[in-house]
Amino acid sequence: QVQLVESGGGLVQAGGSLRLSCAASGRTFSSYAMGWFRQAPGKEREFVARISWGGSITYYADSVKGRFTISRDNAKNMMYLQMNSLKPEDTAIYYCAAVRNSGSDYYTAYDYWGQGTQVTVSS
After folding, report:
1. Which has the least CB within 10 A, 34, 100, 112, 117?
2. Helix, strand, or coil (residue 30)
3. How far apart are the first and last CA of the chain?
4. 94: nearest Cα among 71, 73, 118
5. Residue 31: which of 51, 52, 53 has the closest Cα?
6. Residues 6+ apart with CB under 8 A from 66
7. CB-CB contact of 77 with 25 (8 Å)
8. Is residue 71 within 8 Å of 55, Cβ to Cβ?
9. Which tens digit of pLDDT belongs to each residue from 32-68?
10. β strands within the chain, DSSP E
11. Where are the alpha helices (DSSP H) in 25-99?
12. Closest CA to 93 of 43, 36, 39, 18
């Protein structure tokens, strides 16, 4: 089992940057593909980025490609999301998630979730 805790959210002006972190418990973190999702008020949870268990393969939603970078450090049981050139439409609660072996763009595929961290981008 994996427990996930996000941190690093906050209020930032448009064009600014934030770095989200996801701390994972458990000795088998490196066995899990990881993902970042977000949910804005009144909207469905949407895919942001995901990374393979080894960290060599990454995928991004078109809306964040070129602005966000996902990474992980298996030695530290950590995953990160570097967010640059933030836009007001990036405002949402951001969640990290884990699934055994292969990842997915669909949030229903993930078994473990953090509690979320709020990101607010002002115009």
Report:
1. 100
2. helix
3. 40
4. 118
5. 53
6. none
7. yes
8. yes
9. 999 999 999 999 999 999 999 999 999 999 999 999 9
10. 4-7, 10-13, 18-24, 32-39, 46-51, 58-60, 68-73, 78-83, 92-100, 112-113, 117-122
11. none
12. 39
Residue corresponding to tokens 């836009």 = 87
**DSSP alpha helix (H) spans, 2-78:** none
Q: Which two tokens stand for residue 81?
A: 């999301």
**Residue 46: what residue type?**
E
What is the Cα–Cα distance from 80 to 60, expressed in whole angstroms?
A: 14
Q: For residue range 94-104, what is the model confidence (pLDDT) as tens digits?
A: 999 999 978 89
| CA–CA separation, 22 and 37 (whole Å) | 12
10, β-bridge pairs: 119
81-111 core/surface letters (b: 16 or more CB in 10 A; e: else): bebeebeeebbbbbbbbbbeeebeeebeebe
